[in-house]
Design brief:
By secondary structure, the protein is α/β, with parallel strands linked by helices. Helices cover 40% and strands 13% of the residues. The protein contains 15 helices and 15 strands. It has a seven-stranded mixed β-sheet with strand order 5-11-10-9-8-6-7, sandwiched between helices. Strands 1-3-2 form a three-stranded antiparallel β-sheet. Strands 12-15-14 form a three-stranded antiparallel β-sheet, covered by helices on one side. β6, α8 and β7 form a beta-alpha-beta unit. The longest helix has 26 residues. The chain is globular, with a radius of gyration of 23 Å. Pfam families: Aminotran_1_2, GntR.
């Protein structure tokens, strides 16, 4: 197993109390017992795993020894370290656990999570929307409750939402999903054959990378903010994916002219172009929101997870009607429909979505400014360019790499997302992604812990890192 992959699966292994080697052994033992590391799996050499986890080799050696004594692993000179038991064939493995999956589960420890960005509580408008939705449910008759394409009321609300933004849309052009991640998975299944080419930005949203890899796609990359028109036309991928507004993770916004040219190029090349709009409405005060991409082959993807609350599992796909019909048939095989009460509540919120986001814009900008000020004060060597919206900063470390520093930061009680997990090309290793949605006091404490971790990591050294590359859009 690749050391970086095992490090991802280990998650926040060092966040507990006690010696590091015992914490590491406990987490490895759990992965073995739960079958995530099946019998026969070859584990990384001591030095390789120690490097991936940013710990001393002795920590890994001691952890492996604990597992050997427990009978979980076998270590032989010359043949390496393997999980005990006979190797057995399993299903085709196209992906490991997403790099962020272990950060989504609630924890009781004191780790400050700056890796996964989402509102920490539902707005007051959401319970009120549910009250209205429940009153509507009380009047339902002649409806068995299965809506594979989504409830008609919500499909119409989303269609009106796009029409108001300058892209005329009918309800039949909309498919409702259980969040944006399900929308990505459906699109990957519908368009991508094993080995087929998918064009993505580098870096990009890690959930998209995982969805495409799950289909065994061949990922081709283009730099964020560069037009990419020639790449779309030249490679003619099975699917192209981008985040055009408040890009995740860099925060950039693709200008209107570039949007029109990109949509036209995709249409000419007959390439389905997925525009992830999950963050589109999170502009700071006074910042314009460009119109959505529109074109014959453009597929818009949206969700309320970032603009309202992650617990409201409502997403959607807007596309040409034949694509929507195809996706609805595919979804019906796996999922006969979403929660009707949630969809009715979302239909109540959609007409007010822009207003809800404007109401929180000043607070989001204040937290963005506070985090940047704290980073500049305590970690002046770090480069954290400002953004005009969204939820995250794309931070460049002056030396070292994000993977090993993220492990060091985790041991100091703060979780950040290493850049390598957001870059299908294997680059961005000198970056980490940090969100600014926490309250100012929490952000101050988080930066204090990051600064302490940086000193432990070797923050005073100059290791000759390459010159910064532009992330401007």
């Amino acid at each position: 197993m690749d050391p970086a992959e095992l490090a991802d699966r280990l998650g926040r292994w060092s966040a507990g109390r006690g010696p590091l080697y015992l914490l590491l052994a406990a987490r490895l033992r759990r992965l073995v017992d739960e079958g995530e590391l099946p019998p026969g799996t070859a584990l990384p050499p001591d030095r390789a795993l120690a490097s991936a986890l940013a710990v001393g080799r002795g920590t890994v050696v001691a952890a492996y020894e604990q597992l050997r004594l427990d009978g979980r692993i076998i270590r032989r000179q010359g043949s390496g370290t393997r999980v005990a038991g006979p190797a057995r064939p399993g299903p085709r493995d196209t992906t490991g656990a997403p790099v962020f999956l272990h950060l989504l589960e609630p924890r009781d420890d004191d780790v400050i999570l700056l890796a996964c960005a989402a509102p920490t509580a539902p707005p007051a408008a959401l319970p009120a929307a549910y009250e209205r939705a429940l009153s509507q449910l009380a009047t339902v008759t002649n409806d068995i409750g299965y809506h594979p394409s989504g409830h008609w009321r919500l499909r119409r609300a989303i269609a009106d939402h796009y029409t108001r933004r300058g892209v005329p849309t009918d309800p039949e052009d909309v498919l409702i999903t259980n969040g944006g991640q399900q929308a990505l998975s459906l699109l990957a299944r519908a368009f991508v054959e094993p080995g087929g080419t998918v064009l993505v930005e580098a870096p990009t949203y890690p959930g998209a990378i995982e969805a495409f890899r799950e289909q065994a796609a061949s990922l081709r990359t283009l730099p964020v903010g560069l037009d990419g028109f020639e790449t779309v036309a030249r490679t003619r991928p099975e699917l192209a994916y981008l985040v055009s507004t408040h890009h995740n993770p860099t925060g950039g916004v693709l200008p209107p002219l570039a949007r029109r040219r990109l949509a036209a190029t995709a249409a000419t090349a007959d390439v389905p172009l997925v525009d992830d709009e999950v963050l589109a409405h999170l502009a700071f005060p006074g910042q314009p929101t460009p119109p959505p991409l529109a074109g014959e082959t453009v597929i818009s993807l949206g969700s309320l997870s970032k603009s309202v609350w992650g617990g409201l599992r409502i997403g959607w796909i807007r596309a040409a009607r034949p694509i929507i019909d195809r996706l609805a048939r595919l979804r019906a095989v796996h999922d006969l429909g979403g929660n009707v009460a949630a969809q009715l509540a979302a239909a109540e919120l959609l007409p007010r979505l822009e207003t809800l986001c404007r109401d929180t814009a000043a607070d989001r900008q204040a937290r963005h400014d506070h985090l940047r000020a704290e980073l500049a004060r305590r970690l002046p060597q770090w480069q954290a360019p400002p953004v005009t919206g969204g939820q995250t900063l794309w931070v460049r470390l002056p030396h070292g790499d994000g993977d090993s520093f993220a492990q060091t930061a985790l041991r100091h009680g703060v979780a950040v997302l290493p850049g390598s997990g957001l870059d299908a090309s294997g680059g961005s290793r000198e970056f980490v992604r940090i969100h600014f949605l926490a309250d100012p006091g929490t952000l101050t404490e988080a930066v204090h812990r990051l600064a302490t971790a940086w000193q432990t990591y070797g923050g005073g050294a100059d290791r000759g890192a390459p010159a910064p590359r532009s992330m401007a859009i």
